[in-house]
Amino acid sequence: MRMFVIPLITLLTIPTLLFAADLKLPDNLKAEAMIIRGEREQMWEKTLVVRFPERRRTLSTYDGLVDALAAMNHSANPLLWARVNDRFMGKAGRGGKSYTEFIHERTARSLKLNTNDITKMATAADLDNLAMVTKEFGPLTVTVLVTAGARGNAVRTGVDQGNNIEGQEPHGTINVMLLTNARLTDGAMARAIVTVTEAKTAALQDLNVPSSYTKNVQATGTGTDSVIVVSGTTGPRASYAGGHSKLGELIGTATHEAVIEALGKQNGFRLPTAHIAQTKTP
User: Fold this and answer.
1) How many Cβ atoms from other residues are within 10 Å of residue 136's Cβ?
2) At what angle do helices 78-88 and 95-110 cross, to 10 degrees?
3) What's this model's pTM, rounded to 2 decimal places?
4) 183-184 and 237-238: which strand pairing?
5) What span, in angstroms and rounded, lies between the C-alpha atoms of 162 and 160?
6) I want to staple 241 with a disulfide (CB 3.0 to 4.6 A). Which of 73, 103, 115, 192 is the partner?
């Protein structure tokens, strides 16, 4: 174990912090967002941090249910991910997950929070290609922040094989952070993840993103996708977030648009001309 920890600390504890840039979120979400930019071994690191004035109920595919004071999506140069994995993957630990946990701890310290106050996800997609989409209807507001990459490990779930053990997954990830002013029950947060996933898969279908592993089949996602859902405090109470509800519609349309935008920025995927023409037809 000692052989693993010492070199890992050597690699990870000498970052160069550059600057933080704020993002404007709708006022009724009662949250502040910023992207912290830095450099490690001459390779970029960027962390999206969304901070709340009080604890928010969140559901994350990485951390589960957390009463959080912040949510984060960490992005790093793919070569940095590869370096961490190559050096530190083995029986003593899992390189990518160890790096993610290290960044989680560093971010908590910088915000003067405990690690269990922050829910997290991570990616090799560049946060400069972040897509942010807001949808509103009546008293409801939904904002979705997406980073996305699908060139290297797009999968068709139910068809493609899984050949990696935990911590060895290839990089290329669609990460979705969903913020709403609606006061969601735990069940509604779980259903929101289903709605996000359906909308993400629809976006991949509309973009004709293929599986990276099986010829001539459509991808449904990547093998490392993550979602964080953040419940609100100022809006109506909601116990259902499926597609038959107005809340579910807002979540679906915001996610669909944001995934398409993020994949366009990151990978150059574009909607076919026929699809664009169809969506504009009255």
Assistant:
1) 14
2) 120
3) 0.88
4) parallel
5) 7
6) 192
CA distance 178 to 155: 23
Q: Which residue has the tokens 């116990």?
A: 239
In sequence order, the 6+-apart residues with CB closer than 8 A to the CB of 42 are: none
Question: Domains in the chain: how many in total?
Answer: 1
Q: What's the rounded Cα separation, in Å, for the pair 45 and 36?
A: 8
DSSP designation for 6: H
Per-residue pLDDT for the chain (282 aa), expressed as one digit of tens each?
A: 333 343 444 455 555 555 667 899 999 999 999 999 988 888 999 999 999 999 999 999 999 999 999 999 999 999 888 888 776 565 444 677 888 888 999 999 999 999 999 999 999 999 999 999 999 999 999 999 999 999 888 888 887 667 665 554 446 799 999 999 999 999 999 999 999 999 999 999 999 999 888 888 988 989 889 999 999 999 999 999 999 999 999 999 999 999 999 999 999 999 986 555 455 545
User: In this structure, what token pair is assigned to residue 103?
Assistant: 């960044």
Q: Which domain holds residue 248?
A: 2-280
Strands 226-230, 131-137: pairing kind? unpaired
CA-wise closest residue to 261 among 128, 88, 67: 128
DSSP element (H, E) containing 188: helix 186-206
- Phi-psi label, residue 64: left if phi above 0, alpha if psi -120 to 50, beta otherwise: left
Residue 176 sits in a domain whose CATH number is 3.60.70
First to last CA, the chain: 63
Structure tokens at 55: 């604890």
Whole-angstrom Cα distance, residue 85 to residue 195?
A: 32
